[in-house]
Amino acid sequence: MLSIQLTRSVNSGPLYKQIYQALKQQILEGILAEHDQLPSKRELADHLHVSMNSVISAYQQLIAEGYVYTKERRGYFVEALDAFIAAPEEEIFPEELIEKRSPAYQFSFSHMNADASLFPFRAWQHCEQQALRHYAASLDNLEHPQGQWLLREEIARTIGRTRGVRCRPEQIVLGASTQWLFDLLAMICDKHALFAVEHPGYQRIYQQLHASGRPVLPITVDYKGMSPQELEESGASIAVVTPSHQMPTGLIMPVSRRIQLLNWSYKEEGRYIVEDDYDAEFKYEGDPIPALHSLDDLKRVIYVGTFSKSLLPGLRLSYMVLPPALLAVYKHQASHLMQTSSSLIQLALYVFIKSGEYQKHIKRMSKHYKTIRAELIESLYDTFGSSISITGEKAGLHFLMEINTSRPTGAILEKAKEYRLELYGMDRFWLKETAPAEGRPVIIIGFARLRSHDIASAVSLLYRCCFGRA
Ligand code: 76U
Q: What would the pLDDT profile of 240-254 be if each residue is shown by its tens digit?
């Protein structure tokens, strides 16, 4: 008779599970050979002093998984299984794959944050409740591939009013990240079309487009934005730009360059400009500058927006506005792809915008970021004096700081790590293969998560990174 050890303690799990495990193990190890007959249910139950039900459940599970088969009126038999061709190895998980917890920074100058401590979570919760109360029934099926209609309608209204982007909800495609939307774009744009991206620029989009299998062309950003000459010579037909606040230089593209880029797109069929308007909600001096999309009468601009900066990166909600010609291609080639962002978040956001909470939040955050940014800049100049120059500070949640120090950027970033200061340099945005010329170090200063009372300490640490003992 089979040898099976059962443990009858609270923690050892149900008896049928133990019988099932033991038999499975013996089959896999070949202790029970193929076509061996197993004891009858009654025999095994008597032998193990367990109820028939425990044996029945164990046998049923083994049959369901295919370890055991039955023959009518003859009983239970071990299935014929191939032996594994590889011997089991001692389990060693590669050291480099073990996830380390990200360091606890003292202060953050990261450009990747928004300020969660000022987010109106109560109001958000209320909107989620409203969304559940009115739309819970719609959560039981897959939503439209482009996302919830109600939210698309609300976004179309909002960007019409705040960014001058005139579009219909039908043109909007929602997605869980800007990166994913670029994946979609790569799918629906002509296979031979080459993408041009800003250099320096946003690495993640560059890498994403690269992964779509075609060369991606980094085009120099001069003092007005992406160079139209270099773009024309590159042979690209889709140019990705950040006109409201160039990532990372912070430059606001003047209308002269906007017109030049639009004219570039009008010169040939199939040319498009992707306007990535990631942090346009925050503009500190004068009125907001309308999106490049608003100047485009020939429908060559694909507008991309995100709620990562205006609300929270953790919401994972972005969208793009497709010109009708590309929308037709999307419908034909990509609408089998399911929506990637959560319906519940979309519906909550719809209520959040509709009830006016969104605009209230943007207003409050603009005021807050404006103050933090002014205090930070003042503190930087007080501490560093004339050894720094700041650029790109007129909009968005970051600016650049060039430092007149002999210490290279790498050494500054190393020091920052040592002081648990989150800090990034321009190398992060370097897309061309040629190494950057060794000039003065330039670092990117994000201020979204800085608290007013931390500014002096954070700036003094930053000073030590640049000028303190090596
Ligand atoms: C986003 C640019 C240029 C879009 C961005 C960002 O997926 O909607 C930066 C880094 O949150 P998503 O992307 C928004 N376009 O810089 C946001 N930047 C990233 C998160 F902050 C990371 O990796 O340097």
A: 999 999 999 999 999
